[in-house]
């Protein structure tokens, strides 16, 4: 089911995969949207009900523009307060929160700043220190005449962007602005150790062994320094839930069964 919340005049869309189970809120990474967790939701049902927002500026959610502001708001506090609003307005306080990449930092910062809203964390392939740059996406085409043409022009990146491809009045394009993704990533870069260590609720850290974002030593430090944290490594790249969907669902399911 597709739903929508109004946050300070903006529309924030979300996918509620439904069912009678306990709530799990899933926060996607840059370039993605809530439906990227469809496979996980199927695998966790009926014990878990996955609710996956399209985060600000992604998917069907509005860009976070403010009256009189020159640039959209992709601040850390903006993302975190959006996630808190989803939990509050849907009555999901005390949920498990899962996050991939951008969504992973959003998840553990949400726990740090609103601990009453989060009972456990699943963090997918992102560290306590972030220093990646997304400027490579600025060369992606704004529009193409057909879906096939867009996929061809996107090259190898197309396989990670399938859910975000849309048909617009002036052709085929992506459901986000690359310039926004670069701006958002710049706000994400930094040392977030204090936020990662601020809580001790149960946490699962999932790393892809082929990841170019989270290296093995950093992941081990994250698990060692934070109480109640398990580390699982799976044979995949940065987007573990797509690279090894079966292994990811099994690892998450085992963790959830322990709560």
From TrEMBL:
Protein name: Alpha/beta hydrolase
Origin: domain of life: Bacteria
A GO molecular-function descriptor: hydrolase activity
Keywords on record: Hydrolase
Organism of derivation: Streptantibioticus ferralitis
Region ranges (Disordered): 52-73
The keyword Hydrolase is assigned to this record: yes
Domain AB hydrolase-1 residue range list: 23-134
Keyword Signal belongs to the record: no
Pfam families membership: Abhydrolase_1 (PF00561)
Classification via InterPro entries: AB_hydrolase_1 (IPR000073), AB_hydrolase_fold (IPR029058), AB_hydrolase_sf (IPR050266)
